[in-house]
Specification:
alpha+beta; DNA Primase, Chain A; Dna Topoisomerase Vi A Subunit, Chain: A, domain 2; 5-stranded antiparallel sheet; 5-stranded mixed sheet; 55% helix
C-alpha cells in the first residue's frame, strides 16, 4: 500500500533543513547584510542576483524570478515533486519517516499522482514477468540477446515485454480489482472508440520503464522487434510523466554524475544501455524529444556549475539538428556542453560494441564545444561557396539571437565571420533581425517579472506590508482593501495571507507550501525580500492614499464616459461602461463589508 509523509514529519524537516546550508551545496553564497547572495543556478549570469534569506528561509532570483523555500529549491533543481524533495531532505538530515498505511479518509484524499505511481509500479512488475516467462517472453529475450543486452542490464533497468494481444494489461489490472479509469490515466490502456471497454496501448514490444530521479516509475517506452511502425511508442503525458522534464536512466546516473561532474546525453534507449554496460554509468538519454531547458536544469543540478555535458549525437543531419536546437539552452543556462562526433555510420550502441569503452572515451576527450561543432557541421553540410555561406548564416542566426549573454554572442559572431571569411556586420544584421522578430511578445522571463497591472506599485506595496508587517492585516481586512485590486495574482496572494492572519508567527517558508503556482511563489519571495521599514502610521498612510487614488480614478472614468458619449464612440463607450460596472460591484462589496 502506498505510503505518505505525516504533517509532523514535514514540520520536522522544515525545522532541520536550513536553506542556506542546502543551497550552499550548489551555489557559492556570500553574506551581505542579513542575506546571502550568489550566482543563480537556474540561469546564466555574471552579476549575482540570487538572494537567500536565512531569517525568512526563502530564496529569490532577481534575474529569472525563481523563488520559494527549501522544498521549492530542491524541486526546481532536480525536477521532482514535493514528496520526493521532502524525502530527499529527510535522508540528508537523518529524519526517519515511518511507512504508514493510509486510513480510508487518507486514501480518499490521496493524490492522483500517488495512484499513478502505484499503477506504473504494478505494470512494470507485470512486464518484467512477461519477459522472464519462457512462453510469452522467448522472442523478446532472443532479441535483447542479439542486441548485446546482458541480464544484469535487464535487471538494472527493469526491462520487460508487453505480450502480443489486445487485453493482457486490461485483464491483469481487472484481476487486481484496480479501477481501469486510473490505468487509462496512466497511459497503459486506451478506451475503445465505441466506449465498450479498453485495449492495451503496448503490444508485442520490448518495454523500457522510465524512472524519475527518485526511482519512481513515471512512464514507459516500447520498441517493436520488427519493421512495424511506429518503431518506438512512449507513454502519453500524465500527471507524473512529462517528456520535457524526464530523462531515461536518470535515477542510475545521478550518483556517478555528481561524483565525476560530467553527464553523457544519448538519443535513445539502446544507446544509453550500451553506455551503461560499458561502465559509463553517468549517462542519460532523451525520450523522443529535443533537450529542453528543464532537462538542462536537472543535469546542471547533478554536475554542478563547474561540470560539463557531452552530447553523444549521431553525426548525421538529425544529430546536427539536435545540436542546433540545444545550443541556446545550454549557453543561456551557463552549462559547459560539448559534442562528440562518432565516425560516419556509427551510433554509440554500434561503436561501443565494435571498439569498446577505451576508444569511446578517447573520442569523448576530443569532443568539441557545442558552438564549434555546430559551425563546422553546417560548413561541412553547405560548403563555402557564396550560396553555402548564406545558408550557414541563415541556419545560425536564430541560434545566435537566442544567446542572452551579449559578450558571448559577440564572440561567437566574430568566430563565425572569421570561419566564413565575411564581415561581422553582415552576420550581426541577420542576428538583429532575428532578435526583433522575437521581441513582439514578452519572453518567459519578462512574463515572470511583469506581475503587475495598472496599480502595480501601490498594490505591491500593500502586499509587501502584509508579508512583512502582520499587525496591519486586520486593518486591510476591515477596510476591504483587496477588493480594490486590479491584479488578480496579487489579490490572490493577499487573500491567502489574510486566511492565515490569525497565525501572526507563520513563517513565509510555510506560506510557500500553500502556493502551487511557481510564478506566484516567485512574486511572494520577491516582495518578502524587498527592503522596507514599516510602522503602523506609515502603513495607514499608504492604505489611505490607495483608496484616494481609486476614487480619483472613478471620477476620471466618469469624465471619459461623457466624452465618449459626446463623440459617439460607441465601442469605447461600451468598454468604459463595463469598467464602471466592475468598479460599482467592488464598491458595493466594500459597503457590505463595512456594514457587517
Amino acid at each position: 500500500m502506498t505510503d505518505f509523509i505525516p504533517e509532523d514529519k514535514i514540520l520536522e524537516i522544515k525545522n532541520a533543513a536550513d536553506i542556506v546550508d542546502v543551497i550552499s551545496g550548489n551555489v557559492l553564497l556570500k553574506k551581505t547584510g542579513k542575506n546571502y547572495i550568489g550566482l543563480c543556478p537556474f540561469h546564466s549570469e555574471k552579476t549575482p542576483s540570487f538572494t537567500v534569506s536565512p531569517q525568512k528561509q526563502i530564496f529569490y532570483c532577481f534575474g529569472c524570478a525563481a523563488g520559494g523555500n527549501v522544498f521549492s529549491f530542491i524541486m526546481k533543481r532536480d525536477g521532482i515533486t514535493f514528496p520526493e524533495a521532502a524525502r530527499m531532505l529527510s535522508r540528508q538530515y537523518g529524519i526517519f519517516i515511518p511507512l504508514q498505511k493510509m486510513s480510508d479518509a487518507q486514501k480518499k484524499h490521496h493524490s492522483e499522482r500517488e495512484e499513478l505511481l502505484a499503477v506504473n509500479r504494478q505494470a512494470m512488475d507485470f512486464f518484467c514477468k512477461m519477459l522472464l516467462n519462457p512462453d510469452s517472453g522467448k522472442q523478446a529475450a532472443v532479441y535483447l540477446n542479439k542486441r548485446g543486452i546482458t541480464q544484469n542490464t535487464i535487471s538494472a533497468f527493469k526491462i520487460g515485454y508487453a505480450p502480443d494481444g489486445w487485453n493482457h494489461v486490461v485483464n491483469f489490472f481487472s484481476k487486481q480489482k484496480k479501477p481501469l479509469g486510473i490505468v487509462e490515466k496512466a497511459g497503459l490502456i486506451v478506451e475503445r472508440a465505441n466506449k465498450s471497454g479498453f485495449y492495451d496501448r503496448f503490444r508485442n514490444r520490448i518495454i523500457f520503464p522510465i524512472f524519475n530521479l527518485n526511482a519512481h516509475v513515471i512512464g514507459f517506452g516500447g520498441r517493436v522487434m520488427n519493421d512495424d511502425m511506429p518503431k518506438y511508442l512512449n507513454s502519453p503525458e500524465t500527471a507524473v510523466y512529462n517528456k520535457s522534464r524526464s530523462l531515461y536512466g536518470l535515477h542510475l546516473a545521478k550518483q556517478k554524475g555528481r561524483e565525476k561532474e560530467i553527464i553523457y546525453v544519448a538519443e535513445g534507449y539502446f544507446d544509453l544501455l550500451a553506455l551503461y554496460q560499458n561502465g559509463i554509468h553517468n549517462s542519460v538519454a532523451t525520450l523522443g524529444t529535443a533537450l529542453t531547458s528543464e532537462h538542462v536544469q536537472i543535469i546542471r543540478g547533478l554536475v554542478g556549475k563547474d561540470g560539463s555535458v557531452v552530447l553523444v549525437f549521431d553525426s548525421d543531419n538529425a544529430g546536427i539538428q539536435a545540436a542546433l536546437r540545444s545550443i541556446g539552452i545550454f549557453l543561456n543556462a551557463g552549462v559547459n556542453a560539448r559534442v562528440m562526433v562518432l565516425p560516419s555510420g556509427y551510433d554509440p550502441d554500434s561503436y561501443l560494441l565494435e571498439f569498446g569503452k577505451a576508444s569511446f572515451l578517447d573520442v569523448a576527450e576530443k569532443a568539441r564545444t557545442i558552438m564549434s561543432f555546430l559551425m563546422e557541421a553546417l560548413i561541412d553540410k553547405h560548403g563555402l561557396s557564396v550560396e553555402g555561406k548564406v545558408r550557414v548564416v541563415s541556419e545560425m542566426r536564430e541560434t545566435l539571437s537566442s544567446i542572452e549573454d551579449r559578450v558571448a554572442r559577440s564572440l561567437y559572431i566574430k568566430d563565425l565571420a572569421e570561419r566564413l571569411g565575411i564581415e561581422e556586420t553582415a552576420i550581426l544584421e541577420k542576428v538583429r533581425n532575428a532578435s526583433l522578430r522575437t521581441k513582439n511578445g514578452l519572453s518567459k522571463t519578462d512574463q515572470q517579472k511583469t506581475f503587475y497591472g495598472k496599480w502595480e506599485k501601490l498594490e505591491q506595496q500593500v502586499i509587501k506590508m502584509m508579508l512583512q508587517f502582520p499587525p496591519i492585516l486586520s486593518e486591510i481586512e476591515g477596510r476591504n482593501i483587496l477588493s480594490l485590486f486590479d491584479d488578480a495574482r496579487l489579490k490572490s496572494i493577499g487573500q491567502l495571507v489574510l486566511s492565515r492572519k490569525d497565525r501572526l508567527n507563520v513563517k513565509l517558508a510555510d506560506l510557500m507550501d500553500l502556493i502551487d503556482d511557481k510564478d506566484q511563489r516567485g512574486i511572494v519571495a520577491a516582495l518578502a525580500l524587498a527592503e522596507n521599514k514599516w510602522d503602523y502610521d506609515a502603513c495607514l498612510a499608504i492604505l489611505t492614499r490607495f483608496e484616494s487614488l481609486r476614487n480619483k480614478d472613478k471620477k476620471t472614468l466618469i469624465k471619459k464616459i461623457k466624452e465618449a458619449e459626446q463623440s459617439k464612440d460607441y465601442e469605447l463607450l461600451a468598454k468604459l461602461l463595463n469598467e464602471k460596472q466592475k468598479m460599482a460591484v467592488l464598491t458595493e462589496k466594500k459597503k457590505m463589508t463595512l456594514l457587517k
